[in-house]
Amino acid sequence: MFSRSGRNSSQAVETDSSGSFLKNFAPRVIPLLAYTAGELSQIYAVGARSQSIDLAQRTKIFKYEI
């Protein structure tokens, strides 16, 4: 990923870029991650609810078949 022409210079660039990356993007990314986690938990809850309903319908059909 990084071209290492000089040992010290490339390390300084790596730490500097990662530090500025965290300073610049952490305030924007953390709320987005929290929002995404909330959306995913809602989708998962809806999916689990529909799966349980689907399972109940399948067991009813299975009882009627017997």
Question: Could you characterize what this model shows?
Answer:
The protein is mostly helical and 66 residues long. The protein has one helix and no strands. The longest helix has 59 residues, at 7-65. It is rod-shaped and about 65 Å long.
**Helical segment tally?**
1
Please estimate the helix content.
over 70%
- Biggest sheet: strands, sense, closure? none
What percent strand? under 5%
Class from secondary-structure proportions: mainly alpha
Q: Work out the oligomeric state of the chains in this entry.
A: single chain
Bulk shape: rod-shaped
Count of individual beta strands: 0
Average pLDDT reading: 66
Order of helices and strands: H
Radius of gyration: 25 Å
- Low-confidence runs: 8-14
N-to-C span: 63 Å
Provide key terms for this protein.
mainly alpha; 66 residues
Write a concise synopsis of the structure shown.
The protein is mostly helical. It has one helix and no strands.
SSE blueprint:
Elements: H1 7-65
